[in-house]
Amino acid sequence: MTTRTRTTTATESSQLNRVHPDFASVESSDGVTFSGGVMMVNGREQRPVEVQHWESSNGITTYATVMWEAENGEKRCSCNCLGWANKKKNKPRRCKHTDDMMGIKTCRANKAENVRITTIAQAEAHIPKLDGRILRSLMLE
Question: For residue 14, which of 3, 28, 35 has the smallest C-alpha distance?
Fold first, then answer.
């Protein structure tokens, strides 16, 4: 029995990584990196335009989903939840929160807030640095 392997071109790979026709890939192989909480594409900083905050099912953690836009109008979504961080092999980087933001399907999680970003101050206030999950303060007696 012979085994066949199929190689993909860079263009095909980029198309496989797209999750929605109006949104670009967020894969590192497509030039996407994060630095200090900011998305960079091929060394260019992306502008955050919208943030959605989601409560986790345990009620302790809040996740932030961000829509980024490039100068050329290209949009990408990122999230700091484990589903987005733990990408499945040969699948696009996505989670239920980014699917909701892109309009693919509605997320049934509790949306804490939705903020349109128009200033740098708003972005700094609403987008967490990529240091994991944001924990709400807990009062222990």
Answer: 28
Strands (E), 2-99: 32-35, 38-41, 44-45, 47-55, 61-69, 75-79
Whole-number Å distance between alpha carbons of 46 and 56: 27
- Cα 37 from Cα 25, distance rounded (Å): 18
Q: Which residues contact 45 (CB under 8 A, 6 or more apart)?
A: 38, 39
120 located within any domain: yes
The domain tally of the chain equals: 1
On the 0-12 / 13-18 / 19+ scale of CB atoms within 10 A, 37 is middle
| 6 occurs within a structural domain | no
Domain of residue 44 covers 11-132
Q: Which residue has the tokens 């939705």?
A: 114
Q: In tens digits, what is the pLDDT along the chain, a chain of 141 residues?
A: 555 554 444 444 444 456 688 888 888 888 998 887 788 999 998 999 999 999 887 778 888 899 999 999 999 999 988 889 888 888 888 899 999 999 888 887 788 878 888 777 777 777 776 443 433 333 333
